[in-house]
Design brief:
By secondary structure, the chain is mainly α. 67% of the residues lie in helices and 0% in strands. The longest helix has 40 residues, at 4-43. The model has no long low-confidence stretch (mean pLDDT 85).
Amino acid sequence: MASGRSHDRATWALALPFGALWWPWLGLTGMAVASGCFLAGGLLLSPDLDTRSNATRRWGPLRLLWWPYRRWLSHRSLLSHTPLIGTAGRLLYLLVLTAALCLLARPLGAPTPVQLLNRAQSVWQQQRPLVITALVALEASAWLHLIQDGDPVPRLPRVLRRRRRRTMGPRRRAS
């Protein structure tokens, strides 16, 4: 398993080459989106947000937002360290948090979740190739992390591990 510093170095080293892959199809804008999202995925939305990691610290005072996430998931769990599922879970967690914060800040003039959804739909319709590029870049940075960790088989969620242990019962000696 790689250290946090190794993950960071690899993310920084590969962000620009990854972005350059998109240049022929999407130009400089696509390259910037791919590189930026690759960096954001590796440095801010890392699979290691389920621990006290460099990624968690980078959120500064907002790192408290990740506290429930860390409590719900054990490190290297199926839900945090699985390709596609891990990235989708972190993005879904952020979307739910954003909607909840908007509802709480509504008296201060924050947009409603419906307004945010309408805006996201508009961006999807107008900039679909760039949105897809951003999502692929976030996932690619997660894959880089998982490959460095040698993570082919993530752990089962805590709940399933506990039940499994209980049902196995005591070991019997072979006579």
